[in-house]
Predict the structure.
Amino acid sequence: MNKVLFFAHLRDAIGGEEFLSIDASGKTVAELKADLTANYNLPKMDTVMTAINEEFASNDEVISDGDIIAFIPPVSGG
Amino acid sequence: MKMFEISKEPIDIQAVIDKVVQREAGAITTFIGTVRELTKGKKTLFLIYEAYEAMAVKKLEQIGAEIEQRWEGSCVAITHRVGRLDITDVAVVIAVSTPHRADAYEANRYAIERIKEIVPIWKKEHWEDGEEWMGNQLETVAYPSGKPEESDMNE
């Protein structure tokens, strides 16, 4: 299983949950994004970065069992 | 001593500065980011900052490492606030010490620009007539590969 974290407007879009437990192992980041976009009507996923285990990951990276995935909307700190 | 922190409490500015005091330094620059009331004529009531804390600390550490590599003899400390902030509250404090002053200014500027690129922190603006997560509607930044490109990092 994988813990998939959501922040900012994406968290609002999935109904306020901090994370979802999903079995995403073997999928690429792009495939997971596509699945979630279809299920949750997530807005503007093309501008959203992804982290695997707290490090930025590209869309073609393959997810392993136990990886923590986070979707990172464009940041606005500072 | 934690040089890079996410804080739910108001930031003690002097404590951040004290972390970078070193005998080799001839300068310390401090950047204090504060909550502005007016943005393009629109009045902000307050902000909510949210962070992916574990990763945010790692990315702040990365920025510190980049600075220490680029500006010899530099020392960096950064604290970013999360939670509800009112107008004039301090959102971020960056302290950089270096042997010579020019480097301290440059490196500090670099730190705040990098925070705005790679550190997973978001702000939600609350106005009289609504609220919105910032960064989600500008559409000025897209990441076709899913992560920041090298060129994004060097702007």
About this structure: The interface with chain A takes residues 33, 49-52, 54-56, 58, 80, 91-92, 112, 115-124, 133-136, 138-139, 141-148 of chain B (CB under 8 Å). The longest helix of chain B spans residues 53-70.
